[in-house]
Amino acid sequence: MKSKSSFPGAASCYLESTRNMAKSKFEYVRNFETDDTCLRNCYIVVRLDGRNFHKFAEQHQFTKPNDNRALGLMTKSAQSVMEELEDIVIAYGQSDEFSFVFKRTSTWFKRRASKLMTHVASQFSSSFVFYWKEFFGEQPLLYPPGFDGRVVLYPSNRNLRDYLSWRQADCHINNLYNTVFWTLVQKGGLTTVQAEDRLKGKLAADKNEILFSEFGINYNNEPVLHRKGTTLIWEKRDETVTKRMKCPNEGEKDVAVTRSRRTVEAYHCDIIGEQFWEKHPDVLEDDNC
Ligand SMILES: Nc1nc2c(ncn2[C@@H]2O[C@H](COP(=O)(O)OP(=O)(O)OP(=O)(O)O)[C@@H](O)[C@H]2O)c(=O)[nH]1
Ligand SMILES: [Mg+2]
Ligand SMILES: [Mg+2]
Asked: Is 104 within a domain?
């Protein structure tokens, strides 16, 4: 470092000291930060998952196998994430998880993985607590829930659709198992150990058969929310409001004004097949961007 005496005037002395203040000798620690910029042109997926929700569900008396209050709260929190953060084009959730897809051309937070993931996780967690009462009423939240997050990049529309299909297939597999398992316990009088034994090595067709022949339940008639999970996308909706306006020669008058508003809409439908994507062609960008 230069000594003060090497500077001729007071003005340059001041300049040097402010420069030193802005760049302290500690500045070098910045270079320890690693670059986590997400590769260009890829969809950025942030998946959150509830921490130890097995215990959280028990302690908050979630109904088995599906608790509509909990699923509603997860969806509301995911909607808040989409509304508050930029560039999320689609989100998919089931059980205690939600995946958020940033558009492939997003430049939000310079595509820094840690920034994107932590913003999603914190907005989701705070919303989960903030809206708790709306879904659970007077039942208290016993402790602060947490969510882990990860970032995965998908370079093509096919890869991204396969990712979402994988999560929805997981929803189906788990829900079919859980539906039979809890039916055997709740309606069949089996213990949880007996129900587990009964289902060991059973295929999907066997599980459907148990439900149908022993309990008269057609799995396909089970709630679509539980079988398919929740998909959130942006949609344009026309909204008509009445406005009081001043009209020449007529004085004040009520006038209907229609404007187009973007809102987050929830679907509980198949996203593995073509139909959903053909119906919503704007969700994905072209593969040759
Ligand atoms: N009863 C009930 N339990 C649920 C519901 N949704 C999620 N869960 C519970 O949450 C768990 C989620 O599974 P995981 O995410 O694999 O496990 P976890 O206990 O959260 O553990 P980590 O994610 O590894 O921290 C399920 O196994 C259920 O025990 C629900 O609607 N009803
Ligand atoms: Mg979990
Ligand atoms: Mg999970």
From this structure: yes
Q: How far apart are CA 19 and CA 17, in angstroms?
A: 5
Best mutation site among 95, 128, 171 for ligand 1 pocket (most ligand atoms within 8 Å of CB): 95
Would you tell me the crossing angle of helices 192-199 and 157-186 to the nearest 10 degrees?
130
Tell me, what's the ipTM?
A: 0.99
In the reported structure, the alpha carbon of residue 149 is separated from the centroid of ligand 2 by a whole-number distance in angstroms of: 11
CA distance 27 to 181: 58
User: Would 149 be classed as within a structural domain?
Assistant: yes
Task: Provide the domain limits for residue 145.
Answer: 43-169+224-230
Tens digits of per-residue pLDDT, 138-171? 999 999 999 999 999 999 999 999 999 999 999 9
Q: How many domains does the chain have?
A: 1
> By three-state DSSP, how is residue 149 classified?
strand
Question: Which has the closest alpha carbon to 148: 21, 58, 233, 47?
Answer: 47
96 is in an annotated binding site: yes
Kindly give, in sequence order, each residue whose CB lies less than 8 Å from that of residue 227, ignoring residues fewer than 6 positions away. Answer: 171, 172, 175, 219, 220
Contact 91, 35 (CB under 8 A): no
Pick the residue whose CA is nearest to atom 21 on ligand 1: 52
Q: Candidates 51, 52, 71, 96: which one to mutate for ligand 1, based on the most atoms within 8 Å of Cβ?
A: 96
CATH number at residue 91: 3.30.70.3000
Euclidean distance between CA atoms 178 and 180, whole angstroms: 6
- Residue 68 annotated as lining a ligand binding site: no
